[in-house]
Amino acid sequence: MNTDVLDLARLQFALTAGGHFLFVALTLGLATVVAGLQTRAAFSGKPLHARMVRFWGQLYVINYAVGISSPAS
Q1: What mean pLDDT do residues 38-54 have?
Q2: Using one digit for the tens of pLDDT, what is the confidence trace for 50-73?
Q3: Please, which residues have CB within 8 angstroms of residue 72's CB and are 6 or more apart in sequence?
Q4: Quick count: other Cβ atoms within 10 Å of Cβ 59?
């Protein structure tokens, strides 16, 4: 019976660590994308670039909020 509990604990840790790894990697990648797009929008002044910043920025905020509120963190 101890091996069943140990296997479940290992599975729980694997899921938690895997979820945390994905949220962190996606958040860091999106931060770089949003910063680059914001710089491009500031220099070009085109509304398309401003819309791109808003779209990717919203995805960044959603990902950040889910990563903070999830039990993986």
Answers
A1: 95
A2: 999 999 999 999 988 887 776 654
A3: 15, 16, 17, 19, 20, 23
A4: 14
**Cβ 73 vs Cβ 67: under 8 Å:** yes
Q: Which DSSP category does 46 fall into? A: -
Report in angstroms the alpha-carbon separations of 72 from 14, 16, 19, 37, 55: 10, 5, 6, 29, 25
Quote the CA–CA distance of 40 and 65 in Å, as a whole number.
26
Integer Cα distance of 27 and 32 in angstroms: 9
d(CA 41, CA 43): 6
